[in-house]
């Protein structure tokens, strides 16, 4: 399996959301960049409080109030990608959409997501952590982070960079550096943590499609994390 296969597999797990309320809600536009279809069903005035029902592959998954959905969609930016910091109701929503594909994800959002996965790896303190850097300069900016992760824990840390004359002599022990000839390293932003035998496994895989535009997914589902690990290990 390749990194492209991982993104394709996640995109096929399309979800749908049905909004039940007296009037349509403005939040539907916030799902435009996600792998989610949004439908509206009108409720009579004086009926139940507005709510949304979530479906995956046509099967009902869960129902949540519109109030919880709005709070989930508008969290503080520093916590938007930190599942463990979210209140229980928001965490349940996060779990519903944790393998959702994003049509447009910026570098800032990708960095926030990567930090959340790196923090999971740091707190777990063991296992494998793999990260790809689209250029040597990108790795240089994050070098202290990955050296700390490798030196301060029992993590087996691997980074992947596009080969160049400078990478030939790059020695980052205890971090293992792979100067990979695969073109995928230059096209994808990825961070994958195997969980170290815990339920903390997580993966981010995103393909660059514009100067500041990425299409990809992050997930906590073991099946997808294992697929991402297999794809990344194939780059070494």
Average per-residue pLDDT, rounded, comes to 83
Order of helices and strands: HEEEEHHEHEHEEHEEEH
**CATH superfamily label of the largest domain:** Endonuclease Chain A
Rg on CA atoms, Å? 19 Å
**Beta-strand percent range:** 25-35%
Structural class: alpha/beta
SSE layout:
Elements: H1 3-11, E1 15-21, E2 36-42, E3 51-56, E4 59-65, H2 66-73, H3 88-96, E5 101-105, H4 107-124, E6 126-133, H5 136-151, E7 154-161, E8 176-179, H6 184-187, E9 188-193, E10 202-210, E11 213-219, H7 222-233
Parallel strand pairs: 1-2, 6-7, 7-8
Antiparallel strand pairs: 1-3, 3-4, 5-11, 6-9, 9-10, 10-11
What does the model show?
The protein is α/β, with parallel strands linked by helices and 236 residues long. The protein folds into 2 domains: 13-99, Glutaredoxin, CATH 3.40.30; 102-233, Endonuclease Chain A (Endonuclease, Chain A), CATH 3.30.870.10. Helix content is 32%, strand content 31%. It has 7 helices and 11 strands. A 7-stranded mixed sheet has the order 5-11-10-9-6-7-8, sandwiched between helices. Strands 2-1-3-4 form a 4-stranded mixed sheet. A hairpin with a 2-residue loop joins strand 10 and strand 11 (213-219). Helix 1 runs antiparallel to helix 7 and helix 2 (66-73) packs across helix 3. The protein is elongated and about 70 Å long. The relative contact order is 0.16. Residues 75-80 have low confidence and may be disordered.
Describe the structure in brief.
By secondary structure, the protein is α/β, with parallel strands linked by helices.
